Amino acid sequence: MKAAVYRSTGPARDVLRVEEVDTPKPGPGEVLVRVRASGVNPTDFKSRAGATARPVDGLQIPDQDGAGVIEAVGDGVDPARTGERVWVWFAAFGQPWGTAAEYTVVPSRQAVPLPASASFELGASLGVPAMTAHCALFADGPVAGKTVLVAGGAGAVGHYAIELAKRAGAKVVTTVSNPEKGALAAKAGADLVVNYREKGAIERIKAFAPVVDRVIEVALGPNLELDLAVSGPETVVVTYAADGADPVLPVRACMTANVTLRFLLIYGVPDAALDAAVTDITAALAAGALTELPVHRFPLDEIVAAHEAAENGAVGKVVVTTA
Q1: Is residue 303 assigned to a domain?
Q2: CATH of the domain at 220
Q3: How far apart are CA 315 and CA 304, in angstroms?
Q4: What is the pairing mode between strands 147-151 and 214-217?
C-alpha cells in the first residue's frame, strides 16, 4: 500500500516520505480499514516533530483520526462488519499504522460505524478533537441548564465543544480572536461570541452569565485572568492543550474564585469515558448535530504540505485524502 512514513522525528520536510509498504493484516479483535480520509491534529504533527514523548520504533505512519470502509476483519470480529463505513480514532497510538495511508489496522472498537449522512471528511475530523471536547464537557457531570465558556470556538475541539454542549442543553459563550473565527463559532451554535482581544470582553461575558459553570480552555496561561473573572465556587476550568509557556498560577486569585482546575490529556482518559464519548458522538452524528469545519484538502502525496498547513494554524480542518 501507499503510506506516509517517518522513521525519525523532526520537521515534516526532513522526515516525512510517501512510500510503498506492506499492507497490514488484522489480528484477533482487529479490523482492516481502507482509509478514505485522514485528519491532521496538533497531536499528529507534535508527535512527528518529536515534541511528545513517543519514540519511533522503526516505521511510523502518522495521524490518529480517519474514516473509510472495513475491508477485512480478524478472528473474533463479526464478519458482517466487512463493508461497513467507519470513523477511526487512536490509529497511531501505540502502533505504527496511522491513518495517513491507504489502509490502517485498529482494534474493532476503534472503528466506529459512520452514519450514511456523514461524509468521510467529517468522520476523519472527529476522533481526538470531538472526544477531547466530550471528555472536557462531561467529566464533571451533565451540562443541561448550565453555562459553558468555550475558549477558541473556531478550533476543532472548540467547534465540537459548542455543538455537543448545545445538544446537551447548555448555554454557550465562546471567545475568538477575529471576525472570521467568530463567524465559524456562531455557525456552530454559540449563543454569544466574544472577541477576547476587544475591550470589554469580560464585561460582555458577565452580562450574559455572571458566573459560568464550565470553561473548556485551549490556552490556560493567556486566558486565566478572563477565566477567573467569570468563575465562581462551582466553576470547573478544563484545560486540554499545553502550547506556549507554562502559566504561573495566581494562587490567591484562584482561591478567591474557589475555582476547580482540571487537566485533560485524551490518551490517559479511562476507557469508560472514551466509550461514552464514542457513543454520544455517533448519536450526535446520526442526528445531524455535528458539522464540518472548513476543510483544507491534500492528497496523500502532499502529506508534508498538509502537516505544515496544520502547524501553521490553518483555520478549519486539514484532511488528507487517500482515494
Answers
A1: yes
A2: 3.40.50.720
A3: 18
A4: parallel
**Radius of gyration, alpha carbons of the chain:** 20
Q: Exposure of 312 by Cβ count < 10 A (0-12 exposed, 13-18 middle, 19+ buried)?
A: exposed
Instruction: Tell me the C-alpha to C-alpha distance, in Å, between residue 288 and each of 87, 120, 225, 236, 285.
Output: 15, 14, 36, 29, 5
Between CA 21 and CA 1 the distance in angstroms is 6
Structural domain of residue 200, as residue ranges?
Answer: 129-267
Q: Residue 307's domain is classified under what CATH number?
A: 3.90.180.10
Q: Give, for 283, the enclosing helix (H) or strand (E).
A: helix 271-286
Could you say which DSSP state residue 140 is in?
Answer: T
Contact 100, 4 (CB under 8 A): yes
Q: What is the DSSP letter of 110?
A: G
pLDDT at site 245:
81
Within-domain flag for 274: no
- Side-chain half-sphere CA neighbours of 119 within 13 A: 12
Residue 309 and residue 225 share a domain: no
Per-residue model confidence as pLDDT tens digits over 142-182: 999 999 999 999 999 999 999 999 999 999 999 999 999 99
Within this chain, do residues 248 and 310 fall inside the same structural domain, yes or no? no
Asked whether the beta carbons of 33 and 68 are under 8 A apart, the reply is: yes
